[in-house]
Amino acid sequence: xxxxxxxxxxxxxxxxxxxxxxxxxxxxxxxxxxxxxxxxxxxxxxxxxxxxxxxxxxxxxxxxxxxxxxxxxxxxxxxxxxxxxxxxxxxxxxxxxxxxxxxxxxxxxxxxxxxxxxxxxxxxxxxxxxxxxxxxxxxxxxxxxxxxxxxxxxxxxxxxxxxxxxxxxxxxxxxxxxxxxxxxxxxxxxxxxxxxxxxxxxxxxxxxxxxxxxxxxxxxxxxxxxxxxxxxxxxxxxxxxxxxxxxxxxxxxxxxxxxxxxxxxxxxxxxxxxxxxxxxxxxxxxxxxxxxxxxxxxxxxxxxxxxxxxxxxxxxxxxxxxxxxxxxxxxxxxxxxxxxxxxxxxxxxxxxxxxxxxxxxxxxxxxxxxxxxxxxxxxxxxxxxxxxxxxxxxxxxxxxxxxxxxxxxxxxxxxxxxxxxxxxxxxxxxxxxxxxxxxxxxxxxxxxxxxxxxxxxxxxxxxxxxxxxxxxxxxxxxxxxxxxxxxxxxxxxxxxxxxxxxxxxxxxxxxxxxxxxxxxxxxxxxxxxxxxxxxxxxxxxxxxxxxxxxxxxxxxxxxxxxxxxxxxxxxxxxxxxxxxxxxxxxxxxxxxxxxxxxxxxxxxxxxxxxxxxxxxxxxxxxxxxxxxxxxxxxxxxxxxxxxxxxxxxxxxxxxxxxxxxxxxxxxxxxxxxxxxxxxxxxxxxxxxxxxxxxxxxxxxxxxxxxxxxxxxxxxxxxxxxxxxxxxxxxxxxxxxxxxxxxxxxxxxxxxxxxxxxxxxxxxxxxxxxxxxxxxxxxxxxxxxxxxxxxxxxxxxxxxxxxxxxxxxxxxxxxxxxxxxxxxxxxxxxxxxxxxxxxxxxxxxxxxxxxxxxxxxxxxxxxxxxxxxxxxxxxxxxxxxxxxxxxxxxxxxxxxxxxxxxxxxxxxxxxxxxxx
Length: 915
Hints:
alpha/beta; single chain; eight-stranded mixed β-sheet; 31 helices
């Protein structure tokens, strides 16, 4: 499994781990004291807007830099103030801290106390048995969780990233001004490829296609610069960035078109930028600091198992003193009574619970690892099963996070192959950096014959002023054609007519209005629209320019979309069948989100916008989160607040996301789910990471979580009920019998052998009907089950007391060994049978059979139970052989016990249900 973890992490360790130190700059000197929220704080937002609107020269002076970059002395000075450009993350736990975390469960602590008391009273055997159980449960959890974390940390160290930085030497202080857009090959300045951790505020960096933005920066120059910032904003489409100062005041600094942020990446084009802030002072760093500082509260699983544990512990704290007092007062030997009470305490404690829980969760982790899922925290598996609401981001989780051609239409909205052909030639023959839209067009279908029948004559490159580009081609007959593709409004400006079925129509005002309405209708469906136009060229013309983009004939539109993952719709349908509601939380706009949700099967849509949430108090939001299923235009703080409110409403909430803006919600949810392509901050906050693109593993994880829970609950129910029955029987026998009904050593051995039989429960089958709905811990149900089924075994224990006393004459202290041997066998075998009776709501052995490990362990325990009083070890345990007629009575008792338990089980299911 270690190899699987390594291979998986290799796939997603492509992004960078940066981290946080603060630098005070003249115009940003108060950033260091700014409180960090899950999104950009008000003060930070104001300073980013100031940086965006400041005149270039004033900004550079405030950063003590120039377009030629910093020299080495300035870099050292800046680093002394700012530190390294790395984002601080959660401090890794030491091995000792991790071991303590794995150990500190209520039962582990209680068992440790009991082991210490046993050692102080000289009961070495009990000390060894109890200590071994604690060590096994703690060690298994420590090993399983530690292995996943070590694989992640080890492979992360292999990642290295660099940035192209302009640095001056001392003699270059009067170097040439850089007014033109630089490229990596420019000789105007010495460009150094430096590790991103070495960047400081004031550095001048170059950006090119494929680069990750290494810090928060202000653009000084840009050429066709498009950035993918879906990880930050949730927008599926690349965003064009410009060097010009923005017009007006943008409320959201992330939307300022002359600022670029750490963690986004360049899709196409090139740029020159000055570093504003690094590390923790960046937007990514602020969010990472917030996430790291968040004290993650207990999950639904942790709270549930602790509540159940304390119900059983409180029961033990009441029953054990009663056993001590009754035996001390009736027998007069307080030392023996104390040892017996201690044995009862061990017997009452479900000491196998930590090991059963850990083994069951580890089994689930192994199952999920085979499905290409990394489980970072074992508790997350059960939370999978208890989850009843899944909140998910859209971009990169439900969608492929790539652009594809959704439609190719003529100007009237009808499908047109001609439009796609013209767009294909345009994208194929352009020589500039191909945008994601061009890649999508070329990937939509192979058109070799079309390309072969045309040759390129010239092209007019794209620029952000006219927002279109053209290529000129000549067909096999020698006819030339200019093909232009670009924004709808820009294409309409250079078009004088429109292609129609019957020919070409003049593009008058009415027709223009109708065409614009068609494009707007496509936009309303969440599609990005590009227009295509053509014009025949003059014979013999070979050189073309912008002036030739005139008198064009509008052919139609291309509509692009970020397609949903193929597995998204069936995965959400499967989750719905198993009682899990899906809510989409995204930073993208409502139209795009609604379109994607419709494609993945969310047809009944109640959309809530982030701006509306901003105006709601918690009471109103508590209602809205129940009613809404699509939440759009959200900030990270909105996402985290929605998840927190759903938890407050009593839901067990999962959150799936992959972006910077998802990290806070991932940390807040009961179970955080991320994907292999997620940013590091998201993967750091997640409990589970999906390495496979298929989302069907979500439903498989839910079912595995429910199997895990069902098997854990089996153990708790059968242990609690049988232990209660035993103690109830002990109290009755102690009050009327002049000797101990069972010696402390015999009670411990019986308990150990019974626990041994339950060690196979993690591998048991689970009835299908127990997997249909979310499951969670309910201490009241466990207590009721214990009080209902425990006395059933006491009925047969008391029957055994009477038979041993009356029929077999075990009614004096001299013959107490026979009495104790008889009850030892009946108690152990009825406890073993309860495993099969309670493991299913069906008829055991007929309608539902246990897995072979459970059946095998039962047979082994039955054999041990009969052998101990009848074999050579009997004297060691102070047991004696039983007469042959006893075994006739034993068979009758076991059959009657099974029959009565099944009858009572049916009544209990009708009255209270089973889970």
